[in-house]
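[job 0417] fold request received: Cyclase family protein
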Amino acid sequence: MTALDRTDPEAEIAKAAQAYSNWGRWGADDVLGTVNFLTADKRVEAARLVRRGVSFSLSQRFDTDGPQKGWRRRTNPVHTMTDTGTDAALGNQGFPHGIGGADDVIAMPLQCSTQWDGLGHIFDRGLAWNGRAAEKTVTSDGDLVTGIEHLAPHITGRGVLLDVGRVFGDPGLGDGHGELPDGFAITEEHLTATAAAHGVTVGRGDLVVVRTGQYARTRREGWGDYAGGDAPGLSFTTAGWLHRSEIAAIATDTWGFEVRPNEFDVPAFQPLHQVVIPNIGLLVGEMWNPEELAADCAADGVYEFLLTAAPLPITGAVGSPVNPIAVK
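[job 0417] inference complete; emitting structure tokens
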């Protein structure tokens, strides 16, 4: 692995972007990026992984007790009832023969909790996925080209849990599940060693879920600076592995996917995002909750499963809430 020049993030980002670019790989009009690796054959193989029929939600709760603190106008979901049982009981709804009902509405940023980053979410020096001009791709009308709605039918396939927190973390934390400390940079070596420890392979078309244990810690100790603060996460140096492995998507249990603080000695902000989303075309998930799944995987020794995680088909959105479901 080439040493990282911690004094020059701009040069390191440019070098990685050039080395690992997938621009043009699926044609000039592509809107799926690495999700192209998730083919029909891969979904058929994934369906065969279901043996016990047990299922796990990998989502946080969507409520006001969430991690957001207002950075970049990101707030926690606000849930409001527009019709209630009280209205029905008092006869205020105007329906005949005693029928009543309840309705509600929710207001939230699309990236405030468990979510996918769409391909229009991050730009690299003014360019979006596949080399498109950012200003012509995402405008005040939304993502005009790679809106998250294009991904809605596709995200079902073989899920693989890499519980790096269990393999490399403190086993005394997280009820024995293990947790990585903030600032822990997960390298390619950590990922491959974790896969070997779990007895799984990772490759083309897979949907990879990385557990660091940070989510479990924040739920035990309070959110603190979970949303935007220090965190374990993927090292910038994993860009080559993320490209070479040809996975369809990757998700973590942290706010920002990559290690924080970022690995440079001068100011840098989410440099791995800048490589993997606009250049590799990688689908990235954040703030997932793998805790129940991880406990089950550790108990039965099986770390692969059918995973479905469709984004909401919100036209022109650059991200989407998701309720990922793992079935074993």
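[job 0417] notes: The chain has two domains: 9-72+110-327, 77-106. The radius of gyration is 21 Å.
[job 0417] exit 0
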